[in-house]
Each structure stands twice: as C-alpha cells, then as structure tokens.
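User: Quick one: structure for sequence A, then sequence B.

Assistant: Sequence A:
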Amino acid sequence: LFSTGRGFVSLQGPLITMNKGGGSGGGISGSGGEKGPTAAAAAASLQKQKSLLQRVEADITSVVDNFTQIVNVAKVSDPPVKNSQEAYMMEMRASRMVQAADSLLKLVSELKQTAIFSGFASLNDHVEQRIAEFDQEAEKTNRLLARIGDDASASLKELESHYYSSAQRLTLDI
C-alpha cells in the first residue's frame, strides 16, 4: 500500500487501485518473490510505478483543489466586475480540472496497455518455462524407459538361458 493524502493506493502487479477507506499503510509493496526479471528491470519497474503514483497523486490533487476553488468562488457578489472576475476564475479552474481528468484518462489507458503487454510477456515466459520443464521430464522419462527396456532384455536373456539349459526343457521336448 502507498499512502496518498486522500486514501491508499495498492500496487498489484501492473495494476494500481485506490482505496479511499481508512486503515494503516505505508511503503510500497509489490508481488515479491517473482522470478525472471533482473534486478535492474525490477528497479526500473518500481521506478515507473512510483512515477505513475506521483502522476495520479498530482492529478487527483489538482482536480480536488480546483473543484474546491470553484465552490469557494461560486458565491454571488454584488459588484458586477467582481462577478465577471469570479466567472473567469471558475472557467479557468474548470479548464484545469478537465486537463487533470484528461491526464488521468491517459494514465488509465497507459496502465491498461502496460497490463495487457506485461500480461503477454509474463504469459510467454511462463509458457517457455513450462515447455522447458516438460522437455526435461520427457528426457527423464525416455531415459527411464530405455533403462527398463535394457533391464527387461537382460532378464529375458537370463530366463531364456535358464530355460534352454534346464532339465525340464529336455523332458518336454521328448
């Protein structure tokens, strides 16, 4: 969990979710213990997550602050000049809110693309790992079958030699 000023953000793989509820949290936690990426790639991924969290925090702060300013300026004043100034202020704040919301939408789109592409990459890595494991199992099974075949052949030769040299064979042939 990563604590923001307005809630908690949870990092789960490539996905980021935000929880406005209470609770304790601090620091950043990922899905540790994964194999595959090097330390440099993991550090780059962590840095990207921090960067995305900072963007989310900045954009949400901008939306909330601008909305607060719009509400504060929305009261009607008597002088017409002041009303036009306040209307301009409200228009400017609304424009900033739209920009921040657009930035958040772009961030969501980027996160979706990252989730899709990292999902494919991790899926491919997993498939390649499983193929390697199955190849090793196939080699082990082939060696075991070859050994069993050799043992069966040796046992059959031994049984044949005992049979052909036994006295019972001679009595059955007569």
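Sequence B:
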Amino acid sequence: MSELFLSVLDMSLTASYVILVVILIRLLLKKAPKVISYALWGVVAFRLVVPFTFESVFSLLPRNRERNPIPQDSIHQQSPQINSGIEVVDSFVGGPLPAQTAGNSVNHLQNYLQIGSYIWVLCMIALLIYSLVSVLLLKKQLKNAQLIEQNIYEAENLKTPFVLGLIRPKIYLPVGLHAEERSYILLHEQTHIKRYDHIIKLVAFLVLSVHWFNPLVWVAFMLMSRDMEFSCDERVLKNLNYDTYIKKSYASSLLSLATDRRILNGSPLAFGEGNVKGRIKNVLNYRKPRFWVLAFSITIMIAVGIGLIANPKIKVIDDLEQITSSKNISSGEEVYFELPEKSAADILRDLANQQFTIKGNQVSDDDQETVEAFGTAFVNLYTGAIAEQKAVSFKNYISNENLLKFTNKMLELEQRQELKGGIGVIFGLENEFKEVEFKRFDGNLYYVSLPFSNRGSGMNFKMLVQAENKALKMVDLYFGNKDGVDTIVTGHPADRKLHGPKLWDDQVWVDGVFEKLEKYESELNS
C-alpha cells in the first residue's frame, strides 16, 4: 500500500503543476467558449489517474520534475537521502544521513509512510461513504416525486433542479415553475445528460476522492464544475440562436431559483445548479464567438493539452555534443573523452525499472534472449544491491507477494551478512555470465540455470519464469550459495529443487520458510 500511496503522491505532484497551468490558460481564454476550458480539465484528470505517458520535445512540464519522480525505494535506503525530485533542493540538503542514525531514520520513514497510507485510504473511504449516504438520503426524500413525462419528475420539497442517476438519469424539478422557466431549465438539464456531464461529474468526484489531500485538486474540481455549468448554458443559448430576449428570459429563470436555494453537497450522482450569479452574468454577456477567436482557442487547447500530457524528452547525447563542440579541441588532434558515469544508485534504479515482455501470450523458444536478459538483469540488481547496501524494488521481476516478501527479506539479511563478512562470495553490479541452460514446461513455464561470477567468485542462479500479460515474472528462484540465506532457509543445492508456479502459494511451505528466516535473523543479531 505504501508504494501505491507514493505513486499517487507522485501523480498528484505532477498534476498540481498541470492544474496551475490550466488555471492560467482559463484566464487567457476568458472570452472563448467555456467548453474549451471545460475540456482542458480532462488533461488534469489524465495526470491524476494515469501514471505513464509518452515523451515529447513539446512537453510543457519541467524537465527535472519528470526526470526525478518520487523514488519508490527512498524509504528503504540504508543511508537515506533527501530526494524530492527537485535537483536544487536535493543538492543543498540531500547528503546522506549519518550512519549511526540511518537505521532509525529508515524505520521512522517507513512508519510515517505506512501511517500516511492508512490515513489516505481511510479518508478516501470516508469521503465515498459520506457521498453514498448523501445520495441515499436524497433518494429517500424523492420517493414521493411525481412522474411528469419520460424521465422528468416534480417534487414539492425541492428548491433547485438537478439530475440524479447514472445509467438512466432522471431530471427532478421543483413544483410551481412557470412554463417558460420550466422549458429553459429542462433544456439545460437535458443538455447535461446529452453531454454525459452526470457521468463526468461522478468520475471527477472519484478522482477527487483519491487525491483528497491535495487542495489544488479541490480547486480544480470546483472550477471544472463551474466550467461545466457555464458551457452547458452556452450550449443551450447556441441552440436557441443567441436571441437577446431569450438570454434575458433564460437569465430570469436562473434568478428565480437563486433565492433560498438548496445545494446538493456530497452527491456526485445528483448535481444541482451552482454559482447562479456567475451564470447569469455569463449568459447576459455571451455572444456568438468570432471565427478567429474560436480557431485560436481550439489551437491553444490542443497545443496545451498535448504539452501537459507529454513528459519532457530527455536528450542523452547533450553531454557528448557539449564535449565534442568544445573550443579547447584543436582541429586534427586525437581526442579522448569519457561521458560522466552513472552512479551505482542510478544503475540499480534503472535495473529495477526495467520491464521484459514477450511477443506472444506464452513464453516460447523465440523468447530465449528476452528470458536470458531478464535473468541477468535480476542477478545484477540483486547482487548489486548487496554490494552497494541499497534497498531496491523487485516488483518488475516478481508478482507473487510471498516470493516478493521472501526475496526482500533475503536481500536484507544478506546485506547484513556482507557487512559482517559472513559470505564467501564477492557481490557486485557487473557479473560475468556463462552458458545458460533453458528448459520449457507446459508451454508457459521456463526453467533457467544462469551461472555467473564476480572477480572469480561465483554461483549458479536458477529460476522458473512465466508470462503474465506478456510480462516476464519469476514464480520461484534459488541462489546456489552455500553460505547464503536461500540455502539456509529453503534447502541445500542438492536438495532444493525448483517447483511449479504454485509453490509460493502453499501456505505451509511459506510459513516454514519464514519461521527459518526469523530464526536465522535472531542468530544474525546475536
């Protein structure tokens, strides 16, 4: 749950920037049809919901922000560092914490994040329950509403019209409306339904419930609702041919509902007509947009939309171009240069973020190179994490929760073994791999034996791999290290055989392994 919460925080941070840009664009397009600004809120919704997108040189997002998302493993690092995603801040305050306080800091960060994720989920659930209860109470009040025609109802206890429902939305009107008022209000509510505004409002509310902690998302929700109403009014006026008398009559129908109104708070399935004063002003000032205004507005909307959806494209050849174009290099001279090397933390992060997919739905002989690359990447990630004393994420390699939990714990204990000098194997980021042994079972299950060494010290890594939605995932693994945690808790290489894909779903096996892990950890601490 903590990693999910970090992902939501990261999306919310990016979306905050997007919200501010959309607010500025709304001011620029003040005289444009409100449907333009209404559509721009879809970009905000995309950024709040979708954690990935394409890259483009036309991106309007800050380059540093997209290059440095909130690291998923920042709370697990052995020597935690400040990593906000903002390089200036990180370089100023981002030194490693003192070694003597690192362990305590890791625990505190983990605890704070865990508590924060629980609060996030509880408040999200509370908001959804409150909204659902509000809708149910409202439906209870409407049980005596009278059906007038088709999906139109009248109720005596209403002060404002609204739409209620999702699949079969119904329009509810106050009793006693004049015929002219009633016709305009019905046009407005029917326009909402034709544009699927009742569904859009619900989706927006669900997104708001996920990002409830971000005040800018609340601002975006309110402004989106305002733009929804304004653009709906303009659509009605357009259908009525912008007649001056009609505009005044339409505004009067809004004014008649402004007194003693009842706002439908907390009910995303039943939204009433808010901001009457602003809507009346917008209706009276509304004119048919000129062609150039409309063309300019649409162009801005498309350009800004693409710019805010796309991530900035990072040019990896910038450093090379800068070096080769330097004035210090004389013509005809032989020049040697080296690009800045990636840090170990960057290499580990790149390995953790790699994803390996196959061509078909099941692993086949044509995927051997991909399977081998998958295995070597995992070995380098695991052994590199031990050597560098860094915590990493194996989520792109393992989906089974029990196996993932075991691998994380095994890494933690072998890192402590390494610090104590209790392992007779040399670990590192770059390993030498020998001939790989492949064996395929049942069409979608691959056995791989991967011998490797580092500075003359080696072992044999074995794994069972299968495809899940075309992505390669390990269902069992084993490091053939006689001093390693894997051997101690799961069996000697002569005894430990890789089993089928259901081994780590066997709770008896899992409980036995974790009992041995707990016992070994106690011995390691003593």
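Confidence is low (pLDDT under 50) at residues 65-69, 71-106, 259-263, 316-337. Residues 75 and 112 are 10 Å apart (CA to CA).

User: Thanks, that's what I needed.
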